[in-house]
Amino acid sequence: MTPSTEDLLAIARLYWGADQAYIFRQEPSPEDLRYEALWDEKNKEGPRWGALLRELRKELPDCKVCDYTPPLANPSFGALVYPPYERIMSRPQFIWTVAGYLSILAPVYTVHCVRHQYVGKRCLDSKVFLGPIPLELRSIAEVVAQRIEAEYGATALPLEVAQTPVPLYVNFMKPPETTLFHALFTSEPWNIP
Questions:
Q1: Backbone dihedral region for residue 9 (phi beyond 0: left; psi -120 to 50: alpha; all else: beta)
Q2: Residue range 17-67, pLDDT digits in tens
Q3: Is residue 79 within 8 Å of residue 65, measured between CB atoms?
Q4: How far apart are CA 48 and CA 13, in angstroms?
Q5: Given 84, 109, 161, 179, which is the most exposed site by the fewest CB atoms within 10 A?
Q6: Alpha carbon distance 73, 30 (integer Å)
Q7: What digits encode the pLDDT tens for the residues 134-170?
């Protein structure tokens, strides 16, 4: 069962500040200390997340599956799945990634897509698709969702809840742009390799 929006906001407030009082201080904020302590605890689950990634590689043998859990940068474990594509160097091309995030703050996850536009090896633009998954990527997204649910018992965070504005500072995201999505998963969903 997905926690309520109010419960998720209360959880997010434990780990993200409502102001920038500590931005220029040497010492960490109380929220920072709680966040770091939680990551210390969750890092013990690294082998479990690694097992999930190995299962994804077995179930999606034509795709490249990568761990995307940058230490302390995101409040989540991340899996990136790259469907097969042929790089064309001579003209613009769209390359898709399916991203699955399991929050460390609450028992919720999300699966969304990122579309990168390339010319050769140069990325011109990145666009995040939090809403409906494009048809050609749905089977991949479903496998990622099923694995996270089966391994962790987490529930998918509904898009309307994920887009709820929160009065919190999450890394470089500031109110009024900050949403529960940023507080629970990543403040830069487009910024993936």
A1: alpha
A2: 999 888 888 899 999 999 999 999 999 988 999 999 999 999 999 999 999
A3: yes
A4: 27
A5: 84
A6: 17
A7: 999 999 999 999 999 999 999 999 999 999 999 999 9
